[in-house]
Amino acid sequence: MDVPGSQMSDNELSKDRNELPDIQVSKPSSFSVVKSSVSSSSGVHELLECPVCTNSMYPPIHQCPNGHTLCSSCKLRVHNHCPTCRHELGDIRCLALEKVAESLDLPCRYQNLGCSGIFPYYGKLKHEQLCEFRPYNCPYAGSECSITGDIPSLVAHLKNDHKVDMHDGCTFNHRYVKSNPHEVENATWMLTVFNCFGEHFCLHFEAFLLGVAPVYMAFLRFMGEEEDAKKYTYSLEVSGSGRKMIWQGVPRSIRDGHKKVRDSYDGLVIHRNVALFFSGGSRQELKLRVTGRIWKEQ
Ligand SMILES: [Zn+2]
Ligand SMILES: [Zn+2]
Ligand SMILES: [Zn+2]
Ligand SMILES: [Zn+2]
């Protein structure tokens, strides 16, 4: 059967949910066919929306004896009763809908964020995990923050909600002072955002225990994709009391969580004892002067 899905209108599909129409969303052979099958599949897409959690349903798709469908993760949560009619659920699969699901080509879920990709049902899931248009997680490290978004919205979020220091320019000179440097156990975080080359960079300064050794670590993350992060290099220099340490590195993308970067030691790592040498004086106070620079490799 070569009839593309466009023969079936959305209305016809949503009118009778229990009776699956004999549509064949054929494997498209040209781009124009892809387009028509996608536009007409929005009704099918609705059918595949779990009525409980509204996520797309993927096989195995379940149904109650009265034909109400629900996704497999919701099935686990509803204690064997249909959320729609309260009937006992049992273990009935909705094979017809599963077949429809498998035959569909669907746009990436980040279409509204700019992705124009269209994928077969399963390929879509894979793609979405890596889609370059997927939102970024908030790069702030000090708390579990669940905010996601594009770079401009995250920059505004860091500024307004986390009260992060914002700086323009590609060089910096920072002082980290701590009155009781022996309390590294309660890991502390500091974040500064730099705006240069029209991009945003996160400078992290963290204190934590590396095994049993208290350390300080400074590293840079790029607010964007790894591919673009690699175009930049940065250096960090900590000095004081006649001593100096220099780190040169490549900023990591904020796609990599700050913990992942930290645990890979991809940055300037200063043991507390060394840090106290830099601080000079009584060793009762941590005073680190970190200077840095970001530049673009050509
Ligand atoms: Zn569900
Ligand atoms: Zn039901
Ligand atoms: Zn995508
Ligand atoms: Zn946040």
From TrEMBL:
Provide a Gene Ontology MF annotation, just one.
Answer: ubiquitin protein ligase activity
Q: Which residues form the SIAH-type domain?
A: 103-163
Polar residues compositional bias: what residue ranges?
1-11
Instruction: Alphabetically list the UniProt keywords.
Output: Metal-binding, Transferase, Ubl conjugation pathway, Zinc, Zinc-finger
- What biological process terms from GO does the record include? ubiquitin-dependent protein catabolic process
Pathway annotation: Protein modification; protein ubiquitination
Know the name of this protein?
RING-type E3 ubiquitin transferase
